[in-house]
Amino acid sequence: MNDPQIPAMEPTGSEHPQHGYSPNKDAYLLRLKRIEGQVRGIARMVDEDKYCIDILTQVAAVTKALHAVSLGLVEEHIGHCVVGAASEPDPELRTQAIDVKVKEATDAIGRLLR
């Protein structure tokens, strides 16, 4: 899917790329582990035949937490990848790179809204 004419914004090969969320990776992982625990709790509630409204309340809390993670990742993408594309020194490649990164962000936002 990568266009060979558009410079890679991330390192390639065996090295690990530096993503926009990398400085906050530990915080994201901690939040996702909490969400994982919440989901296990919901499964336990269903298994124990808890009241449906109580289960739905917990589902809403997990959904809100996942949305917060998603919005953080979108913000990190825009702040790192889109801004990184804007720093491309070649004007033609810069325009192409920005278009690709903005399209990625737009598509991701669209998936979140479905």
Structural notes for this entry:
It is a single chain. This protein has 114 residues and is mainly alpha-helical. It has one domain (23-113): Metal-sensitive repressor, helix protomer (Methane Monooxygenase Hydroxylase, Chain G, domain 1), CATH 1.20.58.1000. The chain is 71% helix and 0% strand. The protein contains three helices and no strands. It has helices spanning 25-47, 52-86, 91-113. The protein is elongated, with a radius of gyration of 19 Å. Mean pLDDT is 85; it is low at 1-14.
Q: What are the main properties of this structure?
A:
Methane Monooxygenase Hydroxylase, Chain G, domain 1; disordered N terminus; mainly alpha; 114 residues
Count of beta strands = 0
Within the CATH hierarchy, at the fold level, what is the topology?
Methane Monooxygenase Hydroxylase, Chain G, domain 1
Listing every helix as H and every strand as E from the N terminus to the C terminus, the arrangement reads HHH
Total domain count = 1
Radius of gyration: 19 Å
Main sheet?
none
Tally of helical segments: 3
Low-confidence stretches: 1-14
Shape: elongated
Instruction: Provide the helix percentage.
Output: over 70%
State the CATH superfamily name: Metal-sensitive repressor, helix protomer
How far apart the termini lie comes to 23 Å
CATH class membership: Mainly Alpha
Average pLDDT over all residues: 85
CATH architecture: Up-down Bundle
Structural class designation: mainly alpha
Name the beta content range: under 5%
